[in-house]
Amino acid sequence: MTLRLDADEHQALRDQPAAEGASMQDVARRAIREYVARRGHE
User: Fold this and answer.
1) What are the extents of the domains in the chain?
2) What is the pLDDT of residue 8?
3) pLDDT score at 42
4) pTM for the structure as a whole
5) Which DSSP string do the residues of the chain spell out, in sequence order?
6) Which residues of 9-21 are buried (b: 16+ CB within 10 A; e: fewer)?
7) Sorting pLDDT into bands at 50, 70 and 90, what band is 41?
8) How far apart are CA 28 and CA 5, in angstroms?
9) CA 9 from centre of chain
């Protein structure tokens, strides 16, 4: 899967995980799981 982000999204996805001690991939995967869970597909 390729995820295309604009410059602001990319910077936010780089900065926030670093502040949390997580990787960009961890944060993206968590967001996807939460998105799917909210829609009752889990």
Assistant:
1) 18-42
2) 95
3) 53
4) 0.67
5) ------HHHHHHHHHHHHHHT--HHHHHHHHHHHHHHHTT--
6) eeeebeeebeeee
7) low
8) 12
9) 10
**Cβ–Cβ < 8 Å for 20, 27:** yes
Distance CA 41, CA 13 (A): 25
Structure tokens at 27: 């944060």
pLDDT at 35: 93
For residues 21-39, average pLDDT: 91
Gap between the Cα atoms of 33 and 17, Å rounded: 16
Which residues are CB-contacts of 27 (< 8 A; sequence separation ≥ 6)? 13, 16, 17, 20
Side-chain-side CA neighbours of 16 within 13 Å: the count stands at: 12
